From TrEMBL:
Record-given protein name: peptide chain release factor N(5)-glutamine methyltransferase
Gene3D superfamilies with a match to the protein in the record: Vaccinia Virus protein VP39
A Gene Ontology biological process term: methylation
GO molecular function annotations of the record: nucleic acid binding; peptide chain release factor N(5)-glutamine methyltransferase activity
Keywords per UniProt: Methyltransferase, S-adenosyl-L-methionine, Transferase
Top-rank taxon: Bacteria
Gene: prmC
Residue stretches making up the Methyltransferase small domain: 109-201
EC number: 2.1.1.297
NCBIfam families per record: hemK_fam, RF_mod_PrmC
Signal peptide annotation: none
Record InterPro entries: DNA_methylase_N6_adenine_CS (IPR002052), HemK-like (IPR004556), N5-glutamine_MTase (IPR050320), RF_methyltr_PrmC (IPR019874), SAM-dependent_MTases_sf (IPR029063), Small_mtfrase_dom (IPR007848)
Pfam families referenced in this protein's UniProt entry, alphabetically: MTS
Length: 289
C-alpha cells in the first residue's frame, strides 16, 4: 500500500532527467487529480495521509510513468487538458492546446461588448476544437464553424463539442484550397491558429513536441512559411463581413513579415505580445478594396 507522497517521490526519481521538479509536480498533480477525483489543493495538503488502499490506482500511476519516461506529453497520457476552462480531449491526432492560444480567445472576447449577439464565426484549422468550443461557450447565440483537413482531428473536435455541450459545425476541407471552400456565409470573425513553424526551426524545439504531436499541425516549409496566412487572407477577401475582424496566432520569429503581409490587404493591423513577451497574435480589420 503506497502513500501518494511515496508515488510522488518515485515520479521525481524517475523523471528528473527529463523534467524540472516544478514540471514533475504539474504532471503528478494533474494525474493524481484525474485518477483520484480529488482537488489539487486538497491533494497537496494531504499527500502523506492519502493511501491507495488496494494499489489499484498505483497501477494507473505506474502505467503513466512508463509513458512519460518514453517522452509522451502528459496531456496525451491523461487524454485531456483544460483550455479556457473547457475540458478538451486530446490524442496523437491533434495539437495539445497551448496557453498562448487561450490569450487569442481572450482577445476576441474582450473585443465583444455584447456576448449575446448572434455572430458568424469560423475557426480555420480547428484541430481539437479548443478555440471554437471556448468561443461557443462564451458566445452562446453565435454560430460557429470549424474547418480542418484532418478527419481524425475533426472526429475529436466533434466529441469535444458534445462534451462541452456546445454546437459547432465542423467541416473537413483543405484551407490551402481556400477558393473552393464555400460555406455560403459572411463571417464577423475569422480566427485561426494555423501551422506556422518553419522546418528549419525544428532544431530549436523540444524533441517531445515534434516526436509526438502531429507534424502537419506544426510545420510549414522554409520557402513559403506564410502560406496559411496568404490563404486566410484569400478566404477573408471572399467571406469576411465588411466590418468583420480576423484574429490569428503567429510565429514570433516572423511577426514583422506577417504584419507586413496583412497590411497589404487591411487598413488596421494590430500586433500583440503574449504573456511571455513574444509577438504572438495579430488582429486585422477593414479590408482594402
Ligand atoms: C497549430 S494546429 C491548431 C489546432 C487548434 N486550432 C489549436 O489552436 O490548438 C493547426 C491545425 O491545422 C490543421 N491543418 C494543417 N494543414 C491544413 C490544411 N491544409 N487545411 C486545413 N487544416 C489544416 C492541422 O490538422 C491542425 O489541426
Amino acid at each position: 500500500m503506497k502513500s501518494l507522497s511515496e508515488i510522488r517521490q518515485q515520479y521525481i526519481k524517475q523523471l528528473s532527467e527529463q523534467y524540472s521538479l516544478q514540471e514533475i509536480d504539474i504532471i503528478f498533480y494533474a494525474l493524481a487529480e484525474n485518477y483520484l477525483h480529488i482537488n489539487k489543493s486538497i491533494l497537496k495538503l494531504s499527500l502523506n495521509e492519502l493511501k491507495d488502499e488496494n494499489d489499484l490506482k498505483y497501477i494507473l500511476f505506474l502505467n503513466a510513468l512508463f509513458q512519460l519516461k518514453e517522452g509522451i506529453p502528459y496531456q496525451y497520457v491523461l487524454g485531456s487538458t483544460i483550455f479556457f476552462g473547457c475540458e478538451i480531449l486530446v490524442n496523437k491526432n491533434v495539437l495539445i492546446p497551448r496557453p498562448e492560444t487561450e490569450e487569442l480567445v481572450e482577445w476576441i472576447l474582450k473585443d465583444i461588448n455584447n456576448k449575446n449577439q448572434k455572430l458568424q464565426i469560423i475557426d480555420l484549422c480547428s484541430g481539437s476544437g479548443c478555440i471554437s468550443i471556448a468561443l461557443a461557450k462564451n458566445l452562446p447565440k453565435s454560430q460557429i464553424d470549424g474547418i480542418d483537413v484532418s478527419e481524425k482531428a475533426l472526429e475529436l473536435s466533434q466529441k469535444n463539442s458534445v462534451l462541452n455541450k456546445v454546437s459547432v459545425n465542423y467541416i473537413q476541407t483543405n484551407l490551402l484550397d481556400s477558393e473552393k471552400i464555400n460555406t455560403n456565409k459572411k463571417y464577423d470573425i475569422i480566427v485561426s491558429n494555423p501551422p506556422y513553424i518553419k522546418k528549419s526551426e525544428k532544431r530549436d524545439m523540444d524533441e517531445r513536441v515534434y516526436k509526438f504531436e502531429p507534424n502537419e499541425a506544426l510545420f510549414v516549409t522554409d520557402e513559403n512559411p506564410l502560406i496559411f496566412y496568404k490563404e486566410i487572407i484569400k478566404f477573408s477577401m471572399m467571406n469576411l463581413n465588411e466590418k468583420g475582424k480576423i484574429y490569428i496566432e503567429i510565429n514570433q520569429n516572423l511577426s514583422e513579415e506577417t504584419q507586413e503581409l496583412f497590411l497589404k490587404y487591411f487598413t488596421f493591423v494590430e500586433l500583440k505580445k503574449d504573456l511571455s513577451g513574444n509577438y504572438r497574435m495579430i488582429k486585422a480589420e477593414a479590408a482594402i478594396k
